[in-house]
Amino acid sequence: MAILKIGAIASGSGSNFEAIVQATENGILKNKAAVEVLICNKAGAFCMERAKNHNIPSVLIESDKFKGTREDFDQKMIEVLDKYGCELIVLVGYMRFVSQLFIEHFDRNVMNIHPALLPSFKGMHAHEDALAYGVKVSGVTVHFVDPEEDHGPIIIQYAVPVYDTDTKDILGPRILEWEHKAFPKAIELFYENRLHVDGRIVRIDGEVKL
Q1: Does residue 114 carry a catalytic annotation?
Q2: 51 domain residue, yes or no
């Protein structure tokens, strides 16, 4: 099978970007996938340094200074991703919504990761919200993207325990460890053509093991 060409989009430090790149270099995605380009929308974000360290091209398209519509902005990203022949797009800490135009252009092959067990605790403050609610279990969700926030069809989820002594600064890193395993696994399932989307349901061929 041909190598799967991935395009990554990030806004911040890019630790999930790093995890995916490492998986392509010496992990479960080796000889299966490669990250062709990183797009960042925030000047100075550390994700661009990570890309440089791995000799991956990075492109800055600043959203703060952009005057057009969301579709106009997404079109600029599409042009970059098409230039590199990207087949699967991964949102690795991208703090904006993408438009229907963007999603349809890539035939809905756009993935995101969220640090909670969706549909619970959507949005930017998942850890704080989970702790405030008093849950005993939180976790990580990898899902296909649709225009709504943290809403698209769920690919895989992993549960992570929550303890009475947890704060967001304790729970966050515990969940992040599983994020770094879950995203590469979801990409591997995509590469192996084991994911079949039926409405909201993603059916997976075979057993899934991390």
Answers
A1: yes
A2: yes
Q: What is the pLDDT of residue 101?
A: 96
Average pLDDT value for the chain? 96
pTM for the structure as a whole: 0.95
88 phi and psi, to 5 degrees? -125, 130
Tracing tokens 């993207």 back to the chain, one arrives at: 145
In a domain, 209, yes or no: no
The residue ranges of DSSP E strands in 107-150, in sequence order, are 110-114, 137-144
Residue 130 lies in a domain: yes
Tell me whether residue 13 is exposed, middle or buried, using C-beta atoms within 10 angstroms of its C-beta: 0 to 12, 13 to 18, 19 or more.
Answer: middle
% of the chain residues with pLDDT over 90: 92
Q: CA 25, CA 35: separation in Å to the nearest integer?
A: 10
Helices (H), 41-120: 47-53, 70-83, 100-105
Instruction: Tell me, yes or no, whether 210 lies in a domain.
Output: no
The CATH number for 183's domain is 3.40.50.170
Q: What are the pLDDT digits (tens) for 130-158?
A: 999 999 999 999 999 998 888 999 999 99
Q: How far apart are CA 84 and CA 86, in angstroms?
A: 6
List the domain range (segments joined by +) for residue 54: 4-204
The total number of structural domains that make up the chain: 1
Low pLDDT (below 70) residues in the chain:
none
Q: Which of 54, 105, 114, 180 does the annotation list as catalytic? A: 114
